[in-house]
Amino acid sequence: AAATTLIAACGENKQQAGESATSETRPPSTTSSPQANAAPPPGMDAALPTAPITWAGPKGDLQGAWAASAQPRGGILVIHENKGLNDWTRSVAGRLAGAGYSSLAIDLLSERGGTATFTDPAEATAALGNRAPEDMVADLKSGIAEVQRRTPGKKVAAIGFCMGGGLVWRLLAAGTPELSAAFPFYGPTPDDPDFAGSKEVAVLGFYGELDQRVNATEPAAAAALEKAGLVHELVTEPGANHAFFNDTGDRYDATAAADAWTRTLDWLTTHVG
């Protein structure tokens, strides 16, 4: 089955003017947002640059953006929204690296030449929707292995947003004991998930109070986490909508984003290092 349900549950998240899908080697920067005159997004002040990398995946080379912390406390796989790997996703990897966790933002359109080959974000979304979720999970597992290779001896986490949040849930359902922590941000839960193969993963999930479509899948996630005995916490940010963490979108919520960032770093400290 194609990933159309992942895309549909996440709804529309328009790419803002000025946001590029090209490779980023400069220090990450945020683009114009409805709150452009407010404080910068959480973690941006210490963000590190990313560099494009490739590695051997299950069906060919995979692409991504790597942000290396000088003395990493752990490693993180960053999974993009339904528009592919863009500047905002790279900025998240850079912010996490600045907080001490070397991070790899994977490009799930690598088999199509990468997100940068799409000039229209809607075409990138359509291409992602045509991918089989199990193939994307295989790519993500390869990405986790690459993070492990680049952060030897360190624990590893995965964080995803929108479609990427849904893929974090699918990683857990597929059995991913390599992870020590997982952070699905407003990601739709797959049908009848079984997380028993990931029971050592500590899960911190985020939802926006106004995000009705994704929130309808939260009870299934909570029940599956309880059944499998995973350490977990599911947080609903008051007054926030879907994509509240993306500062380039019109649903960005600075208060919710700051709270989620603080909670994420605390969870990483506890469960990753």
Entry keywords:
alpha/beta; 33% helix; 273 residues; 8 helices
Strand elements, count: 8
- Spell out the helices and strands N to C: HEEEHEHHEHEEHHEH
Overall 3D shape:
globular
Can you give the mean pLDDT?
Answer: 92
Assembly classification: single chain
**What's the main sheet like?**
8 strands, mixed
**Helical coverage, percent range:** 25-40%
Cα distance spanning the termini: 37 Å
Kindly report the spatial arrangement of strands forming the biggest sheet.
Answer: 1-2-4-3-5-6-7-8
Tell me the Rg in angstroms: 16 Å
Range of strand content: 15-25%
Classified in CATH, the superfamily is Alpha/Beta hydrolase fold, catalytic domain
User: What is the CATH T-level topology?
Assistant: Rossmann fold
Write the CATH architecture name: 3-Layer(aba) Sandwich
Topology overview:
Elements: H1 4-10, E1 51-57, E2 60-67, E3 74-79, H2 87-98, E4 101-107, H3 121-129, H4 133-150, E5 156-161, H5 163-174, E6 179-185, E7 202-208, H6 212-215, H7 218-228, E8 232-237, H8 254-271
Parallel strand pairs: 3-4, 3-5, 5-6, 6-7, 7-8
Antiparallel strand pairs: 1-2, 2-4
Explain this structure to me?
The protein has 273 residues and is an alpha/beta fold. The chain has one domain: Rossmann fold, CATH 3.40.50.1820. It is 33% helix and 20% strand. It is built from eight helices and eight strands. It has helices at residues 4-10, 87-98, 121-129, 133-150, 163-174, 212-215, 218-228, 254-271, and strands at 51-57, 60-67, 74-79, 101-107, 156-161, 179-185, 202-208, 232-237. Strands 1-2-4-3-5-6-7-8 form an eight-stranded mixed beta sheet, sandwiched between helices. Helix 1 crosses helix 3 (121-129) and helix 4 (133-150) packs across helix 5. The radius of gyration is 16 Å and the shape is globular. 53% of the residues are buried.
